[in-house]
Write a structure and sequence with these properties.
The structure holds two protein chains of two kinds. Chain A is an all-beta fold. Chain A is built from no helices and nine strands. Chain A is globular, with a radius of gyration of 13 Å. In chain B, 0% of the residues lie in helices and 49% in strands. In chain B, a hairpin with a 6-residue loop joins strand 4 (31-37) and strand 5. The chains are: A mainly beta, B mainly beta.
């Protein structure tokens, strides 16, 4: 499986934008970039996914580097409810999700 | 909004006992999964299930584990003879398919404590 590297933790102020990085230098051409998050005491939750182009949805934006070796999940205005572990996962789409350690995001009021 | 439901939320069992964890996936979904998360560790894949059979399983999913879809709505994980190291949160998930853009929906989990 292609591997991802994420910072262990990040901190943000409430109402500020947050940029969560993910490196995936060994990504293959068929790998999609998925982001999930896990709020405290809950199951993982889908956030967004993309292949080559930047993507936006109601939760977040995904910016993908031109060479696809890195991507950034952008939360436009962090709220206290966004405090969670964020997982960047590569998958060709026909295999189950494999979770790494993710980035623990803390949001400060 | 449709959701994956898991019962019970917390199960305590004695070592060596059998446990069955239950899940009701989202009704039109075709793929079903079990994951587990030992306290403080990452979410680990156990097994995926499609068309009434296991489609993929991890090394963790040994002969002590089994899955079943006994009717049109439930999806169960059975651990035959529990060990202390089986203590973990167990998450069920389902998805419409297994292709691109098919998001997996996870339940709230069952906390299994083996004593």
């Amino acid at each position: 499986d292609a591997k991802t590297t994420q910072p262990n933790s990040m901190e943000s102020n409430e109402e500020e934008p947050v940029h969560l990085p993910c490196n995936h230098s060994t990504i293959s051409g068929t790998d999609y970039i998925h982001w999930y998050r896990q709020l405290p005491s809950q199951g993982p939750e889908y956030v967004i996914h993309g292949l080559t182009s930047n993507v936006n949805n109601r939760m977040a934006s995904l910016a993908i580097a031109e060479d696809r070796k890195s991507s950034t999940l952008i939360l436009h205005r962090a709220t206290l409810r966004d405090a969670a572990v964020y997982y960047c996962i590569l998958t060709p789409g026909n295999t189950p999700l494999v979770f790494g350690k993710g980035t623990r995001l803390s949001v400060i009021a | 909004e449709p959701e994956v439901t898991q019962t019970p939320s917390h199960q305590v069992t004695q070592m060596g006992q059998e446990v069955i964890l239950r899940c009701v996936p989202i009704s039109n979904h075709l793929y079903f999964y079990w994951y587990r998360q030992i306290l403080g560790q990452k979410v680990e894949f156990l097994v995926s299930f499609y068309n009434n059979e296991i489609s993929e399983k991890s090394e963790i999913f040994d002969d002590q584990f089994s899955v079943e879809r006994p009717d049109g709505s439930n999806f169960t994980l059975k651990i035959r003879s529990t060990k202390l190291e089986d203590s973990a949160m167990y998450f069920c998930a389902s998805s419409e398919g297994q292709g691109i853009g098919t998001e997996a929906f996870f339940g709230q989990g069952t906390r299994l404590t083996v004593v």
